[in-house]
């Protein structure tokens, strides 16, 4: 066999081995993925309720015009569609880990009572305290508890924040 042919064969074999390893790693990572907080499509969510301690529960509905409307009492257009879109996007939050609710004492992780309760198209998410390992928060979804990034903690769309320029 010529030297050039042998080198090409070794190069193709090395590439094939690297591709096989990359495929294995991709499958391994996919099998360990924890998924998202819900199976809901955030863009398709049309009803949001948010309960925060010490405040009345806020109810919103996405109407045919694509805007969010507050439906507590007399319906009126919500002030900030982007804030409500942020609340809907919580449905697709990446989960860092799942555990059964039975593994916890709900009061110790801030779920009895929860620090916030977000209901998206009938799916209730109860938010607890920040977890010890880092900027992560406990979220009860049915009979399981998820650990998600703390940035997903819902906040009221009615409260304005000051932007720094």
The proportion of residues forming helix, as a percent range, comes to 10-25%
In N-to-C order, the SSE pattern is HEEEEHEEEEE
User: What radius of gyration results from the CA coordinates?
Assistant: 23 Å
Structural domain count: 2
Overview of this protein structure:
This is DUF4340 domain-containing protein. The chain has helices at 3-32, 81-89; strands at 47-51, 58-62, 68-70, 76-77, 95-100, 116-120, 123-130, 136-141, 144-149. With 165 residues, it is α+β, with helices and mostly antiparallel strands. It folds into two domains: 1-33; 42-152, no CATH class. The chain has a nine-stranded antiparallel beta sheet, with helices on one face.
Topology:
Elements: H1 3-32, E1 47-51, E2 58-62, E3 68-70, E4 76-77, H2 81-89, E5 95-100, E6 116-120, E7 123-130, E8 136-141, E9 144-149
Protein name: DUF4340 domain-containing protein
């Amino acid at each position: 066999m010529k030297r050039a042919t042998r080198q090409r064969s070794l190069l193709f074999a090395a590439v094939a081995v690297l591709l096989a390893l990359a495929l294995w790693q991709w499958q391994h990572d996919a099998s360990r993925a924890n998924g998202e907080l819900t199976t809901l499509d955030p863009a398709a969510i049309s009803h949001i309720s948010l309960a925060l301690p010490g405040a009345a529960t806020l109810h919103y509905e996405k109407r045919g015009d694509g805007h969010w409307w507050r439906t507590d009492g007399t319906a009126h257009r919500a002030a900030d569609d982007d804030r409500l879109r942020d609340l809907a996007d919580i449905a697709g939050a990446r989960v860092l880990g799942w555990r059964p609710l039975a593994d916890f004492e709900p009061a110790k992780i801030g779920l009895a009572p929860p620090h916030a309760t977000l209901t998206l198209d009938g799916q209730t998410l109860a938010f607890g305290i920040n977890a010890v390992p880092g900027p992560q928060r406990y979220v009860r979804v049915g009979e399981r508890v998820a650990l998600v990034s703390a940035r997903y903690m819902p906040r009221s769309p009615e409260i304005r924040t000051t932007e720094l320029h």
